[in-house]
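The instructor's notes for this session suggest beginning with a concrete chain rather than abstract definitions. Hand out the sequence below and ask the class to guess, before any prediction is shown, which regions might be ordered.
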Amino acid sequence: MRKDSPRIAVFGATGLVGREILAILESRRLPLAGLRVLASSRSQGTSLEFSGRSLPVEDVASADLRGIDLAFLATSSSMSLDLAPRLLEAGATVIDSSSAFRHEPDVPLVIPEINGELLDESPRLVSSPNCSTSIALMAVDYIRRAAGIRRMTVCTYQAVSGAGAAAVAELEQQARDFSAGRPIEPRHFPSPCLFNLFPHESPIDPDGENQEEAKIRAESRKIWSDPMLAVAATCVRVPTRRAHAEAINLTLERSLSVAEARSLVATAPGVRLFDLESGSRGPEPRDAEGRDEVLVGRVRADLSQPPGRGLWLFVVADQIRKGAALNAVQIAERLAGSDATPRGLVGRWSGPAMVKPSRS
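After discussion, reveal the predicted structure:
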């Protein structure tokens, strides 16, 4: 890949993650020699704004893939499986945000703050983890480094944005329908989102675990290079727009006090210890919208475990940003040798119209 000023293409550019990648690229001013935006034929004839320019949306099906140095795939797994080999053959480096290659042993699965050294070998294909996995591991990685993790249990409360723009539109439409006295009709999801929650809609295996829960276990083991790590998850869809919340329970290998755990969380790159703020009871989804940081609160002892061996944390993060788009851009920055390394990315507000949410 040309590291000085790559020619970049964003596939799936009109979706939630694709648009967020463009916003982050614009705000962080990653040097680039050219930028193309591509999507399905449904978006043909439309355009997207970038740094004051109007970029025509190309049809993925008929696009010439030559001349691309770096490709972001914000696409479905099936489309990534089709596009990635062709892009690699055409000479591009590929960063894929889908699940298509996450379990391939020769494809690095990367969170730059945790295992970014895998990028130092300049791999041509890099996979970005599932949003729930990224959020959980960002929150507890420094605890793992200090005390080891024997077991991690994660209960997620996942925003509808994880299912795409149509899911966000469905929640908003249900709110309008309720206000107008009309019936609440589910279309994208199997059940109504408004005033409701339900197990994650991904397929369920014969053991009763859904695919989202299985991803958290498998991806955590791969990222941490710990194939024997005990991980259990329960994933739930809730009626929030774009920030996931997670309750995380840890069983530690070595004793660690709550004060030590809080100090470790507070110094972790890309993480903010939220409950040190005056009057805070812990982070909420509205606190995380539009923010790059993973917010961690309610760090406390698990009194059901031996002293110093069990912890609870409550974690919230914008799943479109660190859960997907931001992580992909951070991978690109490290591959390009940018000065904006992960340790320098803490606490930034970025993206057009991204402002700190009001508590009023």
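Then share the key points. Residues 131-147 form the longest helix (17 residues). The radius of gyration is 20 Å.
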